[in-house]
Amino acid sequence: MMTVKILIDSVDKIKTFTSIISKEDVECELIKGVHIVDAKSVMGVFSMDLREPVQLNIHSSNKGILKKIEDFIV
Predict the structure, then answer these.
(1) Do 69 and 24 touch, CB atoms closer than 8 A?
(2) Which CATH number is 2-68 given?
(3) DSSP assignment of 9-66, as one string?
(4) Distance of CA 70 to CAs 14, 35, 53, Å?
(5) What confidence tens digit (pLDDT) does each residue in 6-64 have?
(6) Domain boundary assignment for the chain
(7) What's the rounded Cα separation, in Å, for the pair 4 and 12?
(8) End-to-end Cα spacing for the chain
(9) Inter-residue contact 69 to 21 (CB < 8 Å)
């Protein structure tokens, strides 16, 4: 499993991020405090407070995924 901090602080960034992550065949979740949502769910991501970075857990060791989302990693 890989864990990174990401910032997706606009509607366009949310759409782009979920589009990229949805194409991956791995489980991913966003965590902010006690809230955990499926990173592939646009509605789930919109339900979070995204003004600050959130934790992304990727249940894979494929570093290629990180390359695809490098614009969001802080």
Answers:
(1) no
(2) 3.30.1340.10
(3) -SHHHHHHHHHHHHTSSS-EEEEETTEEEETT-HHHHHTS--SS-EEEEESS--THHH
(4) 14, 23, 14
(5) 999 999 999 999 999 999 999 999 999 999 999 999 999 999 988 999 999 999 999 99
(6) 2-68
(7) 20
(8) 18
(9) yes
